[in-house]
Design a protein that fits this description.
about 220 residues, globular, six-stranded parallel beta sheet, alpha/beta
Amino acid sequence: MLTIPPRLPLLIWGAGGHAKVVADVARASGWEVRGFLDDTPSRTGGVFYGSPLMGPSSVLFRAEAEQTVAVFVAIGCNAVRARCVIAAQDAGYSVPVLIHPSAIVSETVEMGAGTIVMAGSVVQADTRMGRGGIINTGASVDHDGQLGEFVHVAPGARLTGEVVVGDQTLIGAGAVVIPRCRIGRMCIVGAGAVVVTDVLDGMTVVGVPAGPHGR
């Protein structure tokens, strides 16, 4: 079953295009977006996408900070998102799962903290996902998927049944992975690729059928 923490006011860590979509998902599912955090000095103050820019992420870790808000990391880079989610959790913040109301998610799915399922996406029965995952707009993960931590399934990508994806891997927009393929850690599957064989850790694959980039 999905576990979603109580709806405290939400701070979004990040203030770029991805953060806008995260804010839309949060608001559509009933969260109050208290503000955004951004580490670019020139962006402190003012308003971003309807909520205040509240300063750099360091405000979360001041001695006087109180964990009276939830924190969601809205950073597309898998490695950076991993560091930020872990830091927020280590500091005692609630890091929720966000699911757009239009997404279809089986009640048997398990998702780690900081995962987001965006509009029009589908996650099917008995899929397991680690922390900090992104199931982007219109993507789908079919039954019995096993996704590691900080995986990004980009818009329109399709993971068919029993696919395994390692930590911090990117499945590019519109890519397709056939059933029971295993994709390793820190891989990149290029946009529009069709994966028909296993992909080893750290590989970048592109094309139809997908093969090593630059072969």
